[in-house]
Each structure stands twice: as C-alpha cells, then as structure tokens.
Amino acid sequence: MFGRILICLSCWTLAIGIPTWGLPTAASGQPPLLSPMAGESLSGTLLTLSIDDQNADKLLRQVLSSVPGRRPAGGPNRAGVDAAASLRSVWIDRHVDTGIPVRLTLVATPASQIVLKIASDADWAVFPLPGVLLVGRPAWVDATIDHLCPSAGAEERITVRWPTGSTAGEVLNQILSATPGRARAAIPPAQPAASSWLPHDVWPGGELIEVDRTLAVSLVLAQFEMGMKRGTPLKTLAALKPLASGVPGGVQVWSAMAPAKPFPLTYPAGDSEGLIRDLLKQKQPRSTIRTTDGKLLVLTTATNHREAIAAIWAAGKRPADKKRPGQDLVFDLKLVNKPVAEVLGQLAAADNRRFRIEPEAGLASEQLVSLDAKQETLPKLGEMVAAIVGLRVVWGEDEVVVTKPEK
Prior knowledge:
Helix 2 (56-65) packs antiparallel against helix 3 (111-121), helix 7 (271-280) crosses helix 8 (302-315) and helix 10 packs antiparallel against helix 11. 26% of the residues lie in helices and 27% in strands. The strands form 7 sheets. Strands 4-2-1-16-18 form a 5-stranded antiparallel β-sheet. Among the domains are: 148-259; 338-403, Phage tail protein beta-alpha-beta fold. The longest helix has 14 residues, at 302-315. The protein contains 11 helices and 20 strands. By secondary structure, it is α+β, with helices and mostly antiparallel strands.
C-alpha cells in the first residue's frame, strides 16, 4: 500500500535540437530518432521517497507523474523537444506480474535511477518512446522496438482512457477512433464492433496520453507479438477478418516479419558521450557513433540502444545549482503511520546534514505520525513532523538535532 513519498521537483534539462541527417525516421517502423530524449527529465529530477509494499506498476506511474518538464500547450519544453518527449504513460508487457510489492527508501535520487531500480528488482527492462515508458521482459521490449508499425507520415497524437474490464479489441477501437488533441476529460464512448480478430483479452484500466496513433496501435499489437504489414491503413484494422491462421491479412506475427536490423537514435552528447562509447565499443554487431553539433547519432541494435539508455539513466544528472536542497526548494511530503525519527532522519539526509536525537527525545521520536504537506522547505517540514509529537528540531548548518522542549 502507499507509504510516504517526498517529492523534490528539481529539474535539469539539456538544450538539444532535432537532427535529421537524411536518416530514416519513424516512417520506417523504427523508434523516432529522439526516443532517448524522452527520459531526459527523469535523469534531472531528484525524488526522495519511502514506499512500503506498493505495486511496481503503480509506483512507476507515480514516479512519472512526479517529474516536471512537460511543455506548455503549443510550445516546446526546455530541452527543445516537443510534448512527445515527456514520459506520461506506462505500457507494460501483459506477461509480467505487475502486482510485485515494492519497498523503497531513497533520498534525493534521480527519478531515472528509481525507475531502473523498480524495473531491475522485478527483472524488467525499460525503454523510452515518445510519451510512453515501455516496460516488460527484456526480450519482449527489444522485439517490440524492432517491430514497431510503420507510420503513414504525419503524427496524430491522441489521448485515450479505458476502464478495467475492457478487451484488447475495445482498446484498439478507442485508439483508432479517438480525435487528435489534448482532451483528457472523459473516456471515449464504447465503439460498436470491437476488433474481433484480437484475442479476447481483458485488461486493467489504463491510459495513453498524447501518444502518436500509430505508436499506440503498435503497443496494442505488441501485447500479442504482432505488427502491421507495411501499407495497411490504420482505419481498416478494426474491420479486418482473420484468415485460417487466425491473423488478418493486414497484420503479421513477429516470427513472420523481417529480421531486425540496427537502427539510428539520437542521444545527448556531453557527459553521456564517453559512457555510450565505452558501453558500445565491445558490443556486436559493431555500433556506429557519429557526433554532429553536440549530438550523438548511434546506429545499433534494439538491445544495445536499451542498454545504452539504461547506462545514461543509471548515471543520472545533478542540477547545475549546487546549493543544498533545503535552501531554496520546496517539497511535498505524505506520511501514513511513519516513525518520527525515520522521517526526520531522511529529511536531514536530503539536505546533506548529519542527524542526531537527544536522549530525552528518544521515546517520543519512536511514535508514528501521519501528515500531508505541500510545497514546504525541508526545515519547515521537519518542524511540522516534530510538532505532532511535541518535539523540537534545530536545523543547524551541518547537523539536524531533535530535542524535547523544556516545560
């Protein structure tokens, strides 16, 4: 269940342009060139959290929702990448156990490292696509990337939501019939005649927010290890009829599709360049890396791309401002029956200070507290927590001390 989560929204992004270099883009059925940039805000957002027995998939969604950096309507975000760069949705392999309980306590940790920690503990792999974090078995994630449906050209970003109990066919029909735009208010009405050729798979509730329509279709088909044939119009998918094999003529199973080939993706250079080069120089087949205008163009396999992105995320980035977090930043803190000493210790650690409890305050500091506070500094949060049990916090230059006030 939900424990406590303290979120520090301290965001760092890297200004970067959109390269073309005459190379294939999403129209080839490969991930869009800027896919690695979709997770940039994760690396520069520091989160402090303590979670007890929360489902892994719910925690991943909560981490993404806590990351800033989404662009204003109609404009680019600070990285120079449009709204597709924000990871706002999670798409999870239907063959993994999403109910794995997670227990985490991390202080001032990049959100990218938290995502990797959650995934690695569950033996999952992750891959950023425009607007979507792809999560699942490593081989499935790689195959999904290799077999994305080829795009017809112009992007059509859609937002869809479906309730628990929806079938895969109903979700596909919502994707096919959704009106492009940013509307998020309501679940689209159920469509008549769900795609009858998809397995009758009942799904939990979910959403895809501002995701390209072709990519959304790819994600649905990937759950059944299928993809569209080149030239199949999206609008015909719902009405396709299964052949004797059980698969319609406009769709292919992965095993019948062409072997995967290396494809290019664009990465930020700078600190990441050495990391990427070191990782890929031993990989087979040999990867190609080109540097142009402060950007890296990497040609390699889906597996190597996934591992390169994971290496960048694991390294994380710290904000350029080296001030202590408690000086200028504000936090949200949600506690549910948590020991005072543990909470105050984590607040002190987040502000890079030592922590000490005076002997007379020891008993009271073991009491459990609940609190829901928003946009407060670390010292103020410490005062609020301590006051619940009648204690006092002295927030010194190098040390946080918990005492019991004299009567």
